[in-house]
Amino acid sequence: DKHLLGTKGMTAGELTSILDRAAYWEQYPVKVSNGLQGRFVANMFFENSTRTRFSFEVAEKRLGAEVLNFAAAVSSVQKGESIYDTVRTIESMGVDAGVIRMKPNGLLAELAQKIKFPLINAGDGNNEHPTQALLDLYTMRKQFGEIKGLNVAIIGDIQHSRVARSNLWALQALGAKVSFCAPQGMQAAELAGHAPYVTIDEALKADVVMMLRVQLERHEGTLFGSAEEYRAAYGLTVERAARMAPHAIIMHPAPVNRGVEIDDELVECEKSKIFQQMSHGVPIRMAVIERALS
Ligand code: CP
């Protein structure tokens, strides 16, 4: 299967082969190779993005592919064209692979049944964001040597987080221990039994403290008080970060709400790998595109 819909169901071997190939690309001595010369890749973002969209584009260009960028705001989606008809249209023009981000849950699996070119999930609803999890795993493996046995605490808006879900499945496949920490209104009922919920004090003992963005655009009503109340109860404050183990690291998929889920001073502190995560997005996406088109 050339599609990359999610990390759920991926084996340790599949995940590791992508991480290994990304390590190859991270070391690659020249910026642009010609491996995908003459191949066309479309980036189809039906939902906003900075990191994922740009790092896919950099990855595609580094592989020598021809890149097409689709933006929903200036497309016939504005005339009511469906996501399926849009993707089918792009496929019909001879494009070789599509990177896709969209809001509806469940639609990607349906599209993957009908669309023949490989689809790479760049984030679907609150379901999965597999390339984010892969770059997160890559960052952890680079830091600690291996994923197996790591304690990873994922803190924040679990319910709305495709990053939490993709990390959960991938980390468990590689033998890490995942715990969640979230206020009641941000817990995910369907994940009950997959990872325990722990207190913030317990979460701070982990090797990896992964903070999630409070996703206000996905909330219906207030899920947990004001920004100040959230920070006081669940934020990674300077005081809390000082209690983390000396070897432990801070991660966040970004964009970051500075001063809400993480203090401003911590975003670029020594323990923080947030900008390294973004750098790793490029070699990971090179590996993923190559896999789709091989
Ligand atoms: N981490 C992430 O997916 O960021 P973007 O929404 O900017 O792509």
Automatic annotation (TrEMBL):
Residues annotated to bind L-aspartate: K79, R162, R213
Domain Aspartate/ornithine carbamoyltransferase Asp/Orn-binding: 148-289
Start and end residues of each Aspartate/ornithine carbamoyltransferase carbamoyl-P binding domain: 2-141
Top class in the EC scheme: transferase
Catalytic activity: carbamoyl phosphate + L-aspartate = N-carbamoyl-L-aspartate + phosphate + H(+)
SUPFAM superfamilies named in the record: Aspartate/ornithine carbamoyltransferase
Gene: pyrB
Taxonomic path: Bacteria, Bacillati, Bacillota, Bacilli, Bacillales
Protein name, as recorded: Aspartate carbamoyltransferase
Source superkingdom: Bacteria
Organism: Paenibacillus mucilaginosus 3016
